[in-house]
Amino acid sequence: MAPHRTVALIVAAGRGERAGGDLPKQFRTVAGTPMLAHSLAAFGAHPAIDDVLVVIGEGQEALLKQAVGDVRFAVGGPTRRQSVANGLAHFHAGPPARILVHDAARPFVPATVIDRLIAALDSHAGAIPVLPVADTLVRGNDAAGETVSRDELWRVQTPQAFAFDLLVEAHRRWPQDRDATDDAQMLRACGHDVALIEGDAMLDKITHAADFVAADARAAMSLVSRSATGFDVHRLEAGEELWLGGVRIPHDRGLSGHSDADVALHAITDAVLGTIGAGDIGQHFPPSDPQWKGARSAQFLEHAVALLRAAGGVLDFVDLTLICEAPKIGPHRDAMRARIAELLRLPPAQVSVKATTTERLGFAGRGEGIAAQAIATARVPICV
Ligand code: MG
Fold it and tell me: 351-356 and 314-323 as β-strands: parallel, antiparallel, unpaired?
């Protein structure tokens, strides 16, 4: 058991009839990506979240795989409460310290809200994001309708954060024949204190068809195009495997470095990180850290892409240039392009692989090493 672990549970078990269309709304596209993929990426990339579990409806396995690939999931029940309970049961073998319960219908999860929730758990059993009510509220629909004071009224959002054992206990004690609007209600029923932290308008729920249109329009308006470059060099040495662009290439020497030294993927990783100003590959995967010894560079690139997606960005194009005298890149170009496109989750048409020599000048010309430069173009939210 890892007592300090924090996990996220995304409830994506709804049928979503109100949004129209045949597909349950959590699998429908919003802002260019299946709705569920947005929150999954946000939790997956947050440094304080150790594990993410999705709860889907019965028979939705194929829809899940199609929307987000292979992810850990549990199958929910007929009500939201039972779906959460099924998700909690998944963690019983190795209970975490904290759990964030989230509804997939709120796709845009700011990292700042996750930070505030986790911080609040230091002094509270639970914490929920809330926003003040802006509209005037009345009770009844005639002219004499009573105006309701907005003081102490809040719009409650998710994710909601809890001490894991207390949430499990609250679920166990809740009457089986009664539904609950959210998990905070169940925790309070056990006498625990739930902190209200500042929510975010980005977390608003997508319910109706018009909400999809509004979210698409808002996402498109707030994205700006950015290009960023990456550059890397590794030394060629005897006795090493040669990996370039995620492809093993037969050659008399290979690139040396702490990881598999795939200079092409390193340059692209830096370019992708650059589009969101997220530092460089050495910051995320320090060469001094033994866990990255011999690591596949594919995972570095996948991490960078996950960070970009979590920031609400959309990758548009990557162009790579390899600089070496040998091996010849031409015969491997298509394989590299296909592998890089797969790692970037882009069609191959949005990936370009080029090569050049330096006319036998310099270290690349003398065959001492291989250099790579890359440029990535992405659309990212204006505030990133
Ligand atoms: Mg490198």
Answer: parallel
When pLDDT is cut at 50, 70 and 90, the band that residue 121 belongs to is: very high
Amino acid at 145: G
- Which CATH number fits the domain 223-381, given the four candidates 3.30.1330.50, 3.40.50.300, 2.30.30.50, 1.10.260.40? 3.30.1330.50
Q: Kindly report, residue by residue over 329-364, the tens digit of the pLDDT.
A: 999 999 999 999 999 988 899 999 999 999 999 999
The residue written with tokens 């309970």 in the block is 85
In this structure, which CATH number among 3.90.550.10, 3.40.50.1450, 1.10.3570.10, 3.40.920.10 belongs to the domain 6-142+151-216?
A: 3.90.550.10
Rounded CA gap, 10 and 20, in Å?
Answer: 22
Distance 262 CA to ligand 1 centre (A): 7
Q: Is the pTM of this model over 0.85?
A: no
Whole-number Å distance, alpha carbon 259 to ligand 1 midpoint, is: 8
Cα 310 to ligand 1 centre (Å): 24
Please tell me the distance between residue 234's alpha carbon and the centre of ligand 1 in angstroms. Answer: 6
Q: Tell me the Cα Rg of the chain.
A: 24
Tell the residue number behind the tokens 């894991």, with chain if given: 164
How many angstroms is it from 265 CA to the middle of ligand 1?
A: 8
Confidence of residue 20 (pLDDT cuts 50, 70, 90): low
